[in-house]
Task: structure prediction
Amino acid sequence: MKYNFDELIERRGTGCVKWDERPQVGEQSAGMTTLSDVIPLWVADMDFKAAPAIQEAVRKRAEHGVFGYTVVEDDYYEAVISWFQRRHDWTIQREEILYTTGVVPAMSVAIKALAMPGEKVLILSPDYNCFFSSVKNNGCEVLESGLKRVGDTFEVDWEDFEAKCADEKTTVFLLCNPHNPTGRVWSKTELMQMNDICLKYGVKVVSDEIHCELMMPGYKFQPFAAVSEACRQNSVVLNSPSKSFNIAGLQAANIICSQPSWRRRLDRAININEVCDLNPFGPVALKAAYNESEDWIDELNQYLWGNYQLLCEFVEANIPQWKVCKLEGTYLPWVDISAMNITSQALCDKLLTEAKVWLNPGTMYGPQTGEGYVRFNIATQRSRLKEALERIKCFLDEK
Result:
């Protein structure tokens, strides 16, 4: 491979959330847990250096030495438009793009713009934990449609989904595409069916597509707005290079919407929430990612696939009471631990304090639908992933 994803990067001591955050166990700080001993496989953040073109673009901008307010210029929009046209066959018009600081702020903007306080926002549960907080923080009610477990994957419960859309208070469907935490990559047929039901009941679609470049072999990402003209007209899409290119800290994301009346409301909400200015490094990183780093993302996906295979093979051979769900996209495998007769939170607490491995309990993503699962982050060096798995095995063998 051209890029060395096996290179160990020391991130402790850099103010890194993933490595420097103090873990919590229940209500108490994990004082018995020495941070230097923990392998963190929790928050969705990769341990790889950014693509060389991104590093060089940021380095060059830093050398200027002045970091004032930033104008987003034409080449920023051109980079976004070109990437999604050639990579995903999605034609975006410049006027459809509104930039902001991140996909989570964009999510709150979309809810504020499209839903009134007291209305319901539908999600497919288990779902990304910030969906719950963003909806509630905007005075709306979370309405969950639970995904159905079918073998080693998950499907929409269409009867329940339609019933939830039919609720007169449901005005927005917040979609995670690809889906975090189940790893589903929604097909064009599924997305079209979602939209058909939403249109039937006057429900607007907000699609969080932050993981769109992270695809396992055999799967292709389908942008919601590119499914059909009906989907384009009934959707607001949120995306960013942050997850795929590991540049979340540089804070640049886009809201893409074809409806002029919705865009006016979105633009107003961006300003109300005061997330309207990008820092000097975000635009240059985005342009370097989309214009110069396509081969890097392709190799990254190969490496992540290797890590996923390692996880599956190790669990099957050494932890047969666990079942790894199929990973179609993202780097966040969803693992069924229900056979252990322990809650997800209790298991994660024990793994943290005794095995020194930090995972996310499934209940973060839905108290009912996430119970019995844990979420892994496999976007780390393979040697670290192997060490974490060996620690988990040793811990479980002693129980």
Residues 294-318 form the longest helix (25 residues).
